[in-house]
């Protein structure tokens, strides 16, 4: 059975680790907070304190077959240093979690071959993509939601929905986990995938519905918005994994 290290056992990394453990993978997980170590230990994760801004990374944490990077840092130099540690470790496969924010708003459908914005994530993706010491698959997740992350709470400023005529690109935690497991089990490497639900309702319709669920009724649709947007296509991912989203129709969520 493969050994998997998860860099960042937070909102997504912790339940991912628990699912992998249930599938009998050996899982190491990291946190930057000492008080969270017992939380990881309690569910069977071999827990480590890891901060990529440090001058060194615990070599035992990197003693694994696969590394899943689930942190939100955009520190280019820290990732360069992390990669040097990966190069001298046993890790041969990496999943790097990126974001659909790398695409500019073009008021059109975007795919993995669409132009990127001037985003720090693009440069960090390239660090992994160009490295030949290990194989990397990059997953560009849409907006994350599910369980305690309720979309009805995403809109805060003055209860006003900006870009109401735009479209959403979201993905549920459950789908994120199954996609990551699918990449591992199908052994799909050296690829870049968009990952978001394959439905894209208008922001006005979706957020009005979701805000009502948390008791926030009658939101204002910003009349002065430019209504800029992008529609992120997950077709490449669906084809590669033969994947069916658990939460496909976001208006039924």
TrEMBL record:
It comes from the Bacteria. Gene3D superfamilies: NAD(P)-binding Rossmann-like Domain (3.40.50.720). InterPro entries: NAD(P)-bd_dom_sf, NAD(P)-dependent_oxidoreduct. One of its GO terms (molecular function) is aldehyde dehydrogenase (NAD+) activity. Coiled coil: none annotated. GO terms for cellular component: cytoplasm. PANTHER family: NAD(P)-BINDING DOMAIN-CONTAINING PROTEIN-RELATED, PROTEIN YEEZ. This is Nucleoside-diphosphate-sugar epimerase.
């Amino acid at each position: 059975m493969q050994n998997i290290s998860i860099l960042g056992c937070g909102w997504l990394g912790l339940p991912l680790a628990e699912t992998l453990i249930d599938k009998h993978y050996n899982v190491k997980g990291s946190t930057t907070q000492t008080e969270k170590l017992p939380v990881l230990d309690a569910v069977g994760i071999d827990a480590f304190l890891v901060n990529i801004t440090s001058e060194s990374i615990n070599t035992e944490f990197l003693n694994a077959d696969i590394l899943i990077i689930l942190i939100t840092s955009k520190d280019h130099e820290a990732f360069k240093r992390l990669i040097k540690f990966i190069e001298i470790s046993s890790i041969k496969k990496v999943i790097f979690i990126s974001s659909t924010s790398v695409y500019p708003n073009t008021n059109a459908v975007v795919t993995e071959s669409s132009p990127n914005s001037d985003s720090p994530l693009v440069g960090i993706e390239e660090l992994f993509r160009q490295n030949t010491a290990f194989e990397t698959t990059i997953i560009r997740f849409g907006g994350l939601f599910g369980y305690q992350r309720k979309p009805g709470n995403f809109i805060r400023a003055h209860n006003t929905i900006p870009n109401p005529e735009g479209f959403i690109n979201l993905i549920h935690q459950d789908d994120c986990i199954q996609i990551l497991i699918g990449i591992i089990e199908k052994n799909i490497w050296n690829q870049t995938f968009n990952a978001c639900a394959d439905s894209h309702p208008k922001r006005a319709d979706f957020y009005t519905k979701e805000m009502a669920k948390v008791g926030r009724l009658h939101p204002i649709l910003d009349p002065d918005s430019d209504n800029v947007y992008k529609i992120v296509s997950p077709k490449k991912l669906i084809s590669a994994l033969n994947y069916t989203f658990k939460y496909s129709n976001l208006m039924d969520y």
